[in-house]
Predict the 3D structure of the following.
Amino acid sequence: METFVRFRHQKVYRERRMTEERSYKTLYRFHAENVQWLANYFLGEYNETRGGAVNNETKMRIFLRYLADPGFQIGVAEDIGVDQSTISKTFSYVLNRIVEKRNEWVKFPLQLWL
């Protein structure tokens, strides 16, 4: 009977890489405190820690890194320490959250046609 029992494999997550303070401007085009502000403003509170969840600051870093150097998602994934599919899902998620607040930031001048 023991030979038929299958045990679940323990999931192994990649080690997330932290960015040095001096590298933020080069990699993300913003300083560290600005990335944190953007994450708080556009993404709000997020306290999920189960299953290797990505926090909001890391989501914003993923988004900004891909915008700063729009090469391959695999390259960004290696830089941050996540999977390529996480880059794809996170980019779409953050973009949609920013688009939701577009009316607060994007204003067009009113033109009168005579």
Summary: The radius of gyration is 19 Å. The mean pLDDT is 81.
